[in-house]
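Morning run. Coffee first, then this:
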Amino acid sequence: MNSSKEELLKVLETIAPFIHRTPVLTSKLIDEMAGCEIQFKCENFQKMGAFKMRGAMYAISKLSEDQKNAGVVTHSSGNFAQALSLAAKSLNVPAYIVMPESAPEVKKAAVRTYGGKITECPSTLQDREATANRIMKEKGASFIHPSNDMNVILGQGTAATELLLDHPELQIIVCPVGGGGLIAGTAISTHVLLQDCLCIGAEPMEADDAWRSLKSGKIESNASVLTIADGLKTMLGDVNFPIIRDHVSEIIRVSEQEIIAAMRLIWERMKIVVEASSAVALAAIIQQKDKFRNKKVGLIISGGNVDLTNLPF
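And here it is:
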């Protein structure tokens, strides 16, 4: 990872016509509760409702014309499936999406709305990978991983790039950790643009593989993932883990109760729809008040794709 400021600005310039430059919101009341000043970078207002549009857009933009004509393929049960479908549609590129049969109908419907061609398979990772490989062979499509692909990582990092360009006074930036694409991209942007700014990850106790990976120095997995933060159940990869290991100062783990309380706080006080995965970052700040006290903090709200029939409060 040897990015320069020029490179990061180029990544942002490449995708800017296709994404929203999302707003940064604040809440005096939450600042008082947390004991620090927080700038909330609201990727819940991004196209398709999450930061993943950024990485999908940049990854597709880096393909050759022949590769674009053949299409792209990924396996995802949620946000990246939607992101890749919409990004591909924006560039007139076919998108083949492998989804587990168990994926919620609402997510499948969203992928279809964005023009993705769904192939369903059993929900094991082996089945997902085998199905994606078959489509790659049949169609000649390029595989794009939701979080373990350098171009996806650089694209996801543009949320932090925008935040840091607008708020160079930040001392800490916090974001949730799932598959590692967002935190790796955020870490790169932070390291390049604002070297004195710490990058901290937030993770559910029930899916704390990244926390354990930083401790052991190798990629760990989760035996079970009983967390409401459904976007954070995936594990790190060999591309993003070295970046996280080198440039993320720590990962804070939070309980399910803390996640729900933080999610409710954002809904009630900021009047915005955020998913549980996004609330993990605020939960970490509130839990570790001493660490953040009187600091200027950036927080990436990763998305707002919530099942409104199944809220935790």
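The chain has 15 helices and ten strands. Good start to the day.
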